[in-house]
Amino acid sequence: MKRRLLLLFPLLVFLGLGFFLYRGLAMDPSARDSALLAQKFPAFTLSTLKDSDARVDESLLLGQVTLVNVWAEWCPTCKEEMPQLLTLAERGVRLVGINYKDTRAKGLEFLDEFGDPFEVNIFDPDGDLGFELGVYGVPETFLVDKEGIIRYKHTGYITPEDVERVVQEVDKWR
Amino acid sequence: MALMIRAGLLLLLLVTSVPVLADSAIEVRDFENPVMAERYRDLTASLRCPKCDAQAIDSSNSPVAADMRERVVHLLREGRSDKEILDYMVARFGEFVLYNPRLDERTWLLWGLPAVLVMIGGLIVAAFVRNRRHIRVRALSAEERERLNALVNREGSE
Fold this sequence. Notes:
Structural class of chain A: alpha/beta
Number of domains of chain B: 2
CATH topology of chain A: Glutaredoxin
Number of strands of chain A: 7
Distance between the termini of chain A: 63 Å
CATH superfamily of the largest domain in chain B: Cytochrome C biogenesis protein
Largest interface: A-B, 16 and 15 residues
Shape of chain B: elongated
Oligomer: heterodimer
CATH architecture of chain A: 3-Layer(aba) Sandwich
């Protein structure tokens, strides 16, 4: 009898493997938590998209809960994301953009065409700040709390279905 | 025997052959010293491109992989150690970029499972061997021998 039960062992192994592989099918391998969660927003000093003489640094993000959105003119999904960002801004979320590996002219053109939900845009033409943030595919969105600590990251574009969740995350840290 | 030697040689060849494709660097880099060039090759082969899931940064065309290669060169020239460079990348892109995940509370199962499986296999083999030992050859009884003879003779006469 005991030996008979032992014959079920391969089936159990199969079922176990099947369970994990099946779960893996529904997972998105590109959605990973940021390595910077619960850490300070990296230090930087850069100009803004609108003004090459202006200088902004990480203190820009202190005092208010802020959504930092990394975008670029050359990024097609950023265009699809803009309506959701405009909705978020209308709902009272403070948005700061990082214009990533772009030119000033192209970036400003983009805002003219698709709207400007951002309080200010940090101009990062070499992608240095993006690198510090571990950006590997625009758009990416970081939630920074009042103390300037990164609390949440959304990789990929924010779909209309995601808006509610993002608002909840923002409210959590207010 | 000759077959065994041949098989053994083939296995040895397979085990010792170096994958040539892996170090097809995209940019040509000039390193003053060969040790640094070697370290660059090893580092870029062991860092995984965060955008492309199953490719090291040494062979990826993705912009983020190019940025990471550039940063590796920069950090090497600054005189940072291999560990510092890997830590630098992990601090920004997460553990994901390490092809050799570090042993910690989340990865012990990953690292330990092969050893555990080998042990389970060993136990199964041991159990089989022990069971075999209990099988004894029993001599035929007179009755059985007679029956066997009858069968053999019948076969022969036909």
